[in-house]
Amino acid sequence: MSILGLFNHWAFVIIMMLGLYAIIARNNMIKKILGLALFQTGIFLMYITLGFKEGAASPILQHDPSISYTNPLPQVLILTAIVVSLSTMAVALAIVIGIREEYDSIEADEVAHLDRQQREPGC
Amino acid sequence: MLSFLSPWAPHFPILLVLLPLLGAVLSPLIGRGDRGWAWAVMTMGATTAVAMALLLRIREVGAVSYPLGGWQAPFGIELYVDLLSAMIALVVAAVGWVVTIYARASIRVEIPGDRLGAFWAVWLLAITGLLGILISGDAFNVYVLLEISSLTIYGLIAMGRSRDRKALVSAFNYLILGSIGASFILIAIGLLYAQTGTLNMADLRLRLLEGGSEATVNTARAFLLAGLGLKMALFPLHFWMPAAYSTAPSAVAGLLAATATKVGIYMAMRFLYSVFPTDQGTLTGANAWILCACAGGAILFGSASAARQPSLSLLLAYSSVAQVGYIVLGLAVGQIDAMTGSILHIIFHALMKGGLFLGAGIIIYRLGGNEFDRLAGLGRRMPWTSAAIVLGGLGMIGIPGTAGFISKLHLLKGLFIAGQPLLAMLVLVGSVLAAIYTWRFVEVAYLRPVTDEDPVAVEEPPGMLWPMWLLIGSSVVFGLYPATVVKLATDAARALLGATG
Questions:
Q1: Local structure of residue A58 (DSSP, 8 states)
Q2: Domain tally for chain B?
Q3: Is the residue at B395 inside a domain?
Q4: Does A72 touch chain B (CB under 8 A)?
Q5: Measured between beta carbons, which residues in chain B are less than 8 angstroms from residue A37?
């Protein structure tokens, strides 16, 4: 199969890696969360691609045996995974609000610096 | 015993999840504070009774399959409980119950009333997720239940902010790492589905045995191991764990140390041995070696780091890193005695480390923290707590008479039979290091004089003391009378390894 034939697979890997890069390289916690969202969206694309079939009908039963259908199961699974991802975002943002209240910053390095100061007073 | 439950017997598997789930949903209506606590204790009591009854039933009739809503597998969702899952489910439910009882006083001090919110609902939901993973026979359901337990656990850890604001940062870091790990598991399940077209675990196995693309299956296994490694805090993916355990509310740390990582290890056992094809019951090539290397690193690094920590909670957390190493070592070797040792260590470590974290929590409750500077002369000031911690520490070393001895004995026997004397040496070196970090507590608590300005005797709250002693004591009882549980673990290990084609 040609490289372009696997276009969706390339796309999902690239989207995932962009997300992972944002999680690692960004200092701002909100941007880390956005990176996580991007990372998970890449996986959703992988699942949707699994169920897709070119020229096939939507999976609604029709009385014609010659029709082929796309696979609805991956989409249903991803519906669940989207809900999970949404809840993860909600919990993550709630924690970031707490961090902002306690540290007055959402930059990962500043927060780590404040923690170190607390541990070694006078340094 | 428990015969009044018999009309419900076919429904035990689903009740194990339904009871804590209903308890969690109803809990905000019952109330916060003591009423919410009493409700949670009742719910967990009922769940433990069901888990006990389920284990007794499985011992009689063998593994149980439960088609949800009457839809037969592989099209419907199946719950599947065998000896291994029933044993670990009983441990999770029972330890969860004991820690719930303990949590009453601890939570009152560590979480202010206005932040308590739906604490008991989140608490019960976390246990629901953990129990669900154990009984699910469907790979995608495992993922969803894993996320239910993980998300609630992030929230529970963050509630430690009133005592230590670092809890928020450790919860955030755990959330990022945990979500990446769970996403890897999701990718693995997707690849397995792409290969086989099924999500039912028994069906997955049958279709994987028929053959197919080696590359897809190996990629799926690699993603799964990386994801589970993060979830079970396997060295070198353990960084979130000491931070999270030492800053979480004490009761939450006790619950997590006893149950959360164990369920991750259970998933690894289940997927590696009952889903993926194995070579006559052993892992092949790189998988076994990578796991052994990580486990060996965990034992050495975890034990050595534990001896250098500034507080008791951190010491216990790094000791957990090492103990996960022992369990994974037995799992990776894939020899029946080593696997028995792993299963026993899952159970015994849950009891011992759960009890130890509860002890660390009692010290926080009375002294506001458990840094070693504050613990001078603790043996005289809090005699019952100190004694329990020393007893638990002896279990970590594996002194004969404690439960830790029984599990390590089986692990060592298995390693020698499998022809891995070097790995067996590693286990012994780990025990010596465990003796060093346990001695550190003994030295501070018993050999250092009480500093003048501190009051000599500190009252130890009985409502926290007896749950701790129940866990530590039961580990000693299992150490002295191990026959029943060893027999069950051997049967479970045989089923796990023998179910391979």
A1: P
A2: 1
A3: yes
A4: no
A5: none
Chain B residues closer than 8 Å to A91 by CB: 151, 154-155, 175
Residues B47-64 pLDDT 10s: 999 899 889 888 888 888
Which residues of B fall within a CB distance of 8 Å from A19?
none
Q: At residue B501, does pLDDT exceed 70?
A: no
Q: How far is CA B138 from the centre of its chain?
A: 21
Which chain A residues are within 8 Å of B140, Cβ to Cβ?
77, 80
- Residue B146, both tokens: 């894993």
Q: Which residues pair with B65 in a beta bridge?
A: B80
Query: Is the CB of residue A115 less than 8 Å away from at least one CB of chain B?
Result: yes
**CB-nearest partner of A50 from B158, B166, B194:** B194
Q: Which domain holds residue A103?
A: 4-119
Domain with residue A111: its CATH number is 1.10.287.3510
Q: Which residues contact B168 (CB under 8 A, 6 or more apart)?
A: A95, A98, A99, A102, B158, B161
Determine the 3-state secondary structure of B487 from DSSP: helix
Q: What interface predicted TM-score (ipTM) does this complex get?
A: 0.90
In a domain, B51, yes or no: no
pTM of the model as a whole? 0.89
Interface test with A, best of B111, B151, B183, B196 (most A CBs within 10 A): B183
Name which of A83, A95, A115 to mutate to probe chain B: the one with the most chain B Cβ atoms within 10 A of its Cβ: A95
A59-89 pLDDT, tens digit each = 787 777 778 888 888 888 899 999 999 999 9
Domain count, chain A: 1
Domain that includes residue B313, residue range:
298-501
Q: How far is residue B391's CA from residue B398's CA, in Å, rounded to a whole number?
A: 11
